[in-house]
Design brief:
With about 240 residues, the chain is an all-alpha fold. The chain is about 60% helix and about 0% strand. The longest helix is centred in the middle third of the chain and has 29 residues.
Length: about 240
C-alpha cells in the first residue's frame, strides 16, 4: 500500500542529498539563506493509514456496517455470552482448586487444558460468524487503496512535492507545512466519495487470493483465476445474504 513512500533509510539519504545540492546551488548563486521556519519546497510527509481512515468513504462504511451486518454482530454477541457462561464455572473451579493447601497439579493442568480448548474453539467460531463483516472491511479498504496512488500523486503535484516521507522517517517537524495527509484525504474524497459496502458473491480479500495462489503454485497447479475487482464506488448495496 505504501510502495511509493520512501523507507526511513532511503529517505534520510535522499534528504541529505537534496539538502547538499540545495546548499551547493545557494553557494554558487550567492543566495541569502532561507529565513528561519520557512518551508523547503519539494519535501513533504504523509500518514497514509490516517488518510485512508479519514476518508469519507471509510467513515461512511464504518457507520453503515453495524446496521447492514447487524445479524452477524448480534449472532456473535449471543455466542460470546454463551461461551462466557460455559467457561465461568470452569474458571471458578480451577481458581478454587488452585487455592487448596495441596492442589492437585495434574488435575489443574487438565482443567487448564480443557479451558484453553474451549477458548480456542470459541475464538475460531466467533471469527467464522464475523467473516462477512471482515470481508466487508477488506472490500472497502481495497476500493480506497485502488484510488490511493492517484490521490497521493495529485496531492503531491498540487503542493509541488517531489519527495514524500513516511512518519517514521521523520525525527522532528515544526508546524504543518510539510504534512500532506489532509491533502491526500481531500483527493481520496474526490476520487471515491463512497464505497460499496458488500462484496460480490465469491469475492475474497487480496490476502486470501494471494495465499491460494501460493498454495496452487507450491502444488504445481495453475494459479487460481483472479477474483473480481472491487466495484466502482457508488451507493452502498444491500447485503443480500
Amino acid at each position: 500500500m505504501n510502495k511509493y513512500l520512501l523507507s526511513a533509510a532511503t529517505a534520510a539519504v535522499l534528504a541529505l542529498g537534496v539538502a547538499g545540492a540545495a546548499n551547493a546551488q545557494q553557494r554558487a548563486a550567492a543566495a541569502a539563506p532561507a529565513p528561519a521556519g520557512a518551508a523547503v519546497t519539494g519535501i513533504g510527509w504523509a500518514d497514509i493509514e490516517q488518510a485512508e481512515a479519514g476518508s469519507a468513504a471509510y467513515k461512511t462504511a464504518e457507520a453503515q456496517r453495524p446496521v447492514q451486518y447487524k445479524q452477524y454482530y448480534d449472532q456473535a454477541e449471543t455466542r460470546r455470552q454463551q461461551l462466557a457462561a460455559q467457561l465461568k464455572p470452569l474458571y471458578d473451579k480451577i481458581k478454587a482448586d488452585s487455592a487448596l493447601p495441596n492442589p492437585n497439579q495434574a488435575s489443574l493442568q487438565q482443567q487448564a487444558a480443557a479451558i484453553q480448548q474451549i477458548e480456542n474453539a470459541g475464538r475460531a467460531e466467533l471469527q467464522r460468524i464475523l467473516l462477512p463483516v471482515g470481508y466487508s472491511q477488506a472490500y472497502v479498504a481495497e476500493q480506497i487503496e485502488g484510488k490511493l496512488q492517484q490521490a497521493v500523486n495529485t496531492a503531491m503535484a498540487k503542493r509541488g512535492v517531489t519527495l514524500l516521507f513516511k512518519p517514521e522517517a521523520l525525527h522532528q517537524v515544526n508546524g504543518a507545512a510539510y504534512n500532506l495527509t489532509s491533502d491526500i484525504i481531500t483527493e481520496i474524497n474526490v476520487l471515491i466519495p463512497t464505497a460499496v459496502l458488500s462484496p460480490p458473491p465469491g469475492w475474497e480479500p487480496a490476502q486470501v487470493r494471494e495465499q491460494k495462489a501460493r498454495e496452487a503454485a507450491a502444488a504445481g497447479g495453475q494459479p487460481a483465476a483472479p477474483a473480481p475487482a472491487p466495484a466502482p464506488a457508488g451507493r452502498n448495496q444491500p447485503d443480500g445474504r
